[in-house]
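Standup notes
- DV: blocked on the single-chain target, sequence here:
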Amino acid sequence: MVRAGVLSRPGLRGSTLRSALADAYDAWLSDVFESLPARNGMALVAVGGLGRREPAPYSDLDLLLLHDGRTGDVAAVADGIWYPIWDSKLGLDHAVRTPDQAFAIAKDDLKALLGLLDLRHIAGNAGVSGPLRERILQLWRTTAARRAHSELRELARARWALAGDGACLLDPNLKDSRGGLRDANLMRVLAVGQLVDLSEAVRGAHRALLDARGELHRRTGRDGDVLRQQEQAGVAKALGLPDADALLRRVNEGARTIGLALDNAWRRADANHAASHGRSLRLRRRSVSGVRTPLGRDVVAQDGEVVLARDADPVTDAMLVLRAAVAAATHQLPLAPFTLERLATESAAMPQPWPAQARDEFVALLGTGPAAVPVLESLDQAGLLVRLITEWDSVRFAAQHNPVHRYTVDRHLLETAAQAAALTREVGRPDLLLIGALLHDIGKGIRSGDHSITGAAIAERIAVRMGLSHEDSATVTALVRHHLLLPHTATRRDLNDPATVRIVTDAVGSADLLDLLHALTVADALATGSAVWSDWRAGLVADLVRRARAVLGGAHPAAVSPLDTLRRRLAERGALAVEVHGDEVVVAAPDSLGVLSRAAGVLALHSLDVRSASIRTHAAMAVNSFVVEARFGRLPDAAIMRGDLSRAIDGTLQLADRLSAKERAYTRAASSPPRAPTVHWFDDEATEATVLELRADDAIGLLYRVTAVLERCGVDIRAARVSSLGGSVVDAFYVTTTDGRPIPPAARAGIESALVKV
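- DV (later): unblocked, structure below
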């Protein structure tokens, strides 16, 4: 087979692989065509990837048989070409047309027109294919400005809505996402239409995506465009890159380069479209030259872009970069490519520490919210952001290895700052909130260690370089160090335990820092993704902040509350009971080993995810309260759950088997290999108990299995908090020995050994 022969040759990858495939396909198809009789007046041409001489190993061959409509047996020739391709197990997209038919279709169908721009003669009568190519090129050049302004952009937007932004995806679609191969080809056809110049940066980004797609095909042995996480290490190795992160960084950066170039191309297309509607050449010239509107000192708007004033001097004005950026974000205009290029090549270095004016301009830029994101990305693309914050380079296009994150680290930081801008009125120091939001994950650029601790040290250096006072630098450092304190404590600890509030108050020390952390928590969650922030999480964090603020104001931490009337009534009734109150399920049963695990199992059987659990005993009855969330629809009827729990307790309901079957039915294939559970112990974060944290991949029935193991190990569970995000859970249990004491270190190894097998 032609493809197999090429793929078996050693040393072929990237552009050499594409050229070898194109040459082999051309030679084979030419031989097939020339072997056929009655082929006069016909030409075999390639379009698509083969037409551009950039085929991926397992992509379809896009072929068009052109004929003059007068000579030869067209059907026989077509069959003589298509059948050998099918017999070779190659994918094929084919058509048979006269040149006039092909041209007529291209006039009405933009996709067909774009495809024919790739037309390349392979075999046969060049007098049939050559004139068609010239007609197609002329048609595109006369209609490109109009069609790029409307149809072409709508096609791209519809595609992006499905495939996302390739600059910040963990599993990027190399072809259809924003900044992907289709967009690189859009840049090429716009250049063919004489609307833009194709820069070497775009060409290089295009090659990087083609290289990755080629090795993805070779590794998987099939056509495909999504670079999934399980394939990234192999593709990286094939391309000579150190690891999957290096590959993803190259792909994300390539997509951003192409995406930003395409944004500039749309603006050029809009300007050309506006110019084409002028009534005279003089009017067109005036429209293109535009009016220069002052936006700030040495910064003006012209033709919908921010440019420098004629007498602006970046060499002597280090703050011109920030003033231009603030003007662009404030007026929601892009910085012109030439302006970015000039600032990148001519700008003076920012003095260190920064002057107060520079710091104010930078905070003003962040304070524009979402409008700052594209401006900061354009500064980053031009190499200007890393000049201001040298540590930024470590997080550029850095992957987030957690599926709840929808952005790369750098984009997540920009989005968090944008979300924080909406919360600046809720804090005493909005400037520190914005800077802290921008830097909160800066430590993720360093792969080793806790990114909060690493990031705090980095943030302190940046804050000092920005000219912040010692006290303000300490606040920014604390924001970065403790940016996960509130969400982790609220979702993993018992808010009714006085020790929980003490964790927060000991760390923050002041109500002002507490308010800043609260705002940062909200901004961080909103910027991460919809799965991270919910009314339940927001309520827990707000409750924790309220309690901590009261203690910081001089109040005493609330003691563990006594059993309320409802739970006391259920316990004193002495019979099995299940009641549903909103999102809370209360279970009362005679206190015995296994009640908690069986209750958790019944809830899982009814597709209820447990968020927290409180375990209390009264009058020889266990009263367990579960805050739950239904995976599908509404909470089931309490009577049905009571019946299942009764059968689970007496052993007539095969709970373990039912849960295993349910897990097999509903669990999807993971995008990455499963990870072994880990167990962590915390001795000083609970009152008269030990906190045990189990971190594991989420699964139906996990809480049932974990609580069953703890019960068999003779551990009493006082309370539990379950935090689930993106397929992973952190289950925190407040545990004691059977006589109510914290778990001694000597007993922990056996418990750990049993838990990691769940």
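- Follow-up: Residues 126-163 form the longest helix (38 residues).
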